[in-house]
Amino acid sequence: MKKIILLIISVFLFAGEAHSKRQVVIDAKYVKRYKQEAAGWSQEQKSWLTFVYSRCIKYNLGNTCVAIAWEESQFNVYGVIPETGDYGIMGINLYWFLRDNNLNTRNRYVRNKWATRLVKDDEYNLMYAIAKLQKLKDKYHNWYSVWAHYNGGTTPNWEYAKRILNRIYVFRKVILGE
């Protein structure tokens, strides 16, 4: 009986995940909005885009990093988001950063020290994101899953993956002219 219940649960979980992945598509509403955003970028945002792309391209993560930096911080316009605990250009979540690095999540001095570094040291923030993306790439071998797990952790965020896909589409078509 336990085996049957586990089988039924796994079928529903798999079906739900497969269904969600199919929803990661180019969406005209997102494309329109992202084109408008790109048209309004400041010179500073364009400089951050160049910074991110130039660092990530050598890891085959150029498009992904640009889309994540755009999604997470609008290219460092919003480098601190206390409501979600996300910091820096790549929106590194402080709680999970501390957990992943076996640091004391309850010590406010530890939290403040690392939050400050994630905001002030853009190179460190970006390299941490690159390392995380590479681990996800090695684990999932699928860009949609990489994006969904970058934001959702063990529970993939397929809506996030859809936004990243659409930002990449706009970046490649509008900015790179592909």
Question: At the third CATH level, what is the topology name?
Answer: Lysozyme
Please tell me the CATH architecture by its name.
Answer: Orthogonal Bundle
**Strand ordering within the main sheet:** 1-2-3
* Total strand segments: 3
Structural class: mainly alpha
In helices, the fraction of residues equals: over 70%
- Domain unit count: 1
For this structure, what is the CATH class?
Answer: Mainly Alpha
Average pLDDT over all residues:
90
SSE pattern: HHHHEEEHHHHH
Q: Measure the end-to-end span.
A: 55 Å
Write up this protein.
With 178 residues, the protein is mostly helical. The protein has a single domain, classed as Lysozyme (Orthogonal Bundle). Helices cover 71% and strands 3% of the residues. It is built from nine helices and three strands; from the N terminus they run ααααβββααααα. A three-stranded antiparallel sheet has the order 1-2-3. Strand 2 and strand 3 (92-93) form a beta hairpin. Helix 4 (62-73) crosses helix 9 and helix 8 packs across helix 9. It is globular, with a radius of gyration of 18 Å. It starts with a helix and ends with a helix.
